[in-house]
Amino acid sequence: MTAIEHSRTVSVVGTGTMGQGIAQVALVAGHPVRLHDTVPGRAEAAAAAIAARLDRLVEKGRLDAEARAAAVARLFPAEQLAELADSALVVEAVVERLDVKQELFAALEKVVDDACLLATNTSSLSVTAVAGALRLPERFVGLHFFNPAPLLPLVEVVSGHATADAAATAAYDTAKAWGKTPVRCADTPGFIVNRIARPFYAEALKVYEERAADPATIDAVLRESGGFKMGPFELTDLIGQDVNEAVTRSVWESFFQDPKFTPSLAQRRLVESGRLGRKSGQGWYSYAEGATPPEPHTAPATEPPAEIVVEGELGPANELIAMAREAGITVRETEEDRGTRILLPSGGQLALADGQTSVEFRDVVYFDLALDYRAATRVALAASEVTSWETLRESIGLFQALGKKVSVIGDVPGMIVARTVAMLVDLAADAVAKGVASAEDIDTAMRLGVNYPIGPVEWGRRLGSSWAHELLDELHTRVPTGRYAPSLALYRRTYAEMGGE
Q: Which pLDDT tens digit goes with each residue over 179-202?
């Protein structure tokens, strides 16, 4: 264990929300903490604000009064940078500008001991670039906390190009000793969470731009079928449209405008209009007093088919067979090698989203992926102008008989959940292959950092790499921009699963 001893001083430079939060974490863990800000008086005000938050923790029974008094006694505002000289760790949480951070750390190197660990809480800048002008860049590391730092457990420990293993290990062990869940990652644009999470927002925005569904319906499908805690439209309203769009643009530009990270024009227009979400009172949704949240599209009640025929294996949706029987629907299974589909009494077909579109086939309705079809409360269906009403009606009735609300969306390849999950699986596989982070750390980061129901690597294992590869390959055929081209890592995994066939 190489965690910094509790008796050693931890200093935090920058006393905004993140700086105060990080300082509180170190303080409660038992360290003496120094707070510094370039604006006179802010460090003292921040110390008072932290003490007030500790008072509230005592009131709620989460901290005893004695521990609170000891913590406040260890908290020291520092008006001058020179007062940080005895620090074992300095964490920076100032404005997201490379020149400002570089200037700060150059000044810190003249103050602290050579053994002092230096860390940046940047979420968008290169850790390597921030350390680029340092005399000892090997002792520099990224410590990316998530807001609010005292409550959220995840910390991304980012190694820059010159970061020594010992420095990264010390930062990792210290975060763990503070009660956090650290994950290691390389210095890549967006680190783990902000890199891999992009499709969750981007694919929803794309479906909206294609006029296949409205924000409320897309959010509902990803929550109630995909298992996500919040939909992307309500989540970006909470984060702030300007903040989310800026992160997307930063990652896209850092990857030399890779089409997989292309920002959304619809979101850009929303930001330009000043509709930034909750903080401005209007984003995708209205937050004005008395505003009624929009309802997702839900199909009216329809009679289910009395009998269905299942050809082949339904793969991720195989549980639907048992569920249909339990609902009193007669199910016949055949081993016809004509693909995976459900035949309806009308002669139409129902198929799991596979990256193709309904209009390409005669009388086909697609249904979306679900994290767990038994637990899902909503399922999306996609039909085209050539789909007969009878086929759509029977498809709606079938899922309603299984206890699901049904949202009918436009005929877009990959639908909503399926294309989102396939992209998450692909980006995670690519990140593991390129040494960004381990599979375990990626899944941990995505579960704790953005509250995903399961990590994308685990999701890929459950679905099989070939499922994601085939769906993305079909999407790439229909949208040949490079956005959906399966990564080499996913390609290799797919063929490894197939035994090299």
A: 999 999 999 999 999 999 999 999
Place of tokens 């009403």: 389
Q: Which residue has the tokens 């995505």?
A: 446
Angle at 449 between CA 29 and CA 50, to 5 degrees: 35
What pLDDT does residue 362 have? Answer: 81
Cross-strand pairs, 427 = none
Give the pLDDT score at 334.
Answer: 87
Domains and CATH numbers, the chain: 9-187 (3.40.50.720), 195-280 (1.10.1040.50), 307-409 (3.30.750.190)
Q: Which residues in the chain come in under a pLDDT of 70?
A: 1, 336-339, 499-501
> For the segment 279-322, what is each residue's pLDDT rounded down to a tens digit?
999 999 999 999 999 999 999 999 999 999 999 889 999 999 99
- Check residue 338 and give its pLDDT: 56
Residue 109 dihedral angles phi and psi, to the nearest 5°: -60, -25
In this structure, what token pair is assigned to residue 31?
């360290």
Measuring CA to CA, which residue among 349, 487, 474, 455 is closest to residue 414?
Answer: 474
Give the orientation angle of helix 417-433 with respect to helix 198-209, to 10 degrees.
150
- Retrieve residue 136's tokens: 């000892």
Tokens of 14: 């920058």
Q: Of 349, 331, 323, nearest to 403 (Cα)?
A: 323
The span from the CA of 165 to the CA of 143, in Å, is 14
Query: How many other C-beta atoms are found inside a 10 Å radius of the C-beta of residue 176?
Result: 15
DSSP 8-state class, residue 182: E
Which residue reads 């694919």 in tokens?
203
CA angle 458, 402, 323 (to 5 degrees): 65
Report the pLDDT value the prediction gives residue 495, as an integer from 0 to 100. Answer: 86
pLDDT value of position 454 = 98
Nearest residue to 447 via CA among 143, 183, 121? 183
**Active-site residue list:** 123, 144, 156, 194
Nearest to 12 by CA among 96, 78, 63: 78
Cα distance between residue 259 and residue 262, in whole Å: 5
Tell me the C-alpha distance between 383 and 7, whole Å.
65
- Sheet with 405-409, strands from edge to edge, namely 330-334, 307-311, 341-343, 349-352, 364-367, 378-382, 405-409
Please report the sign of the dihedral spanned by the C-alpha atoms of residue 352, residue 354, residue 355, residue 359: negative
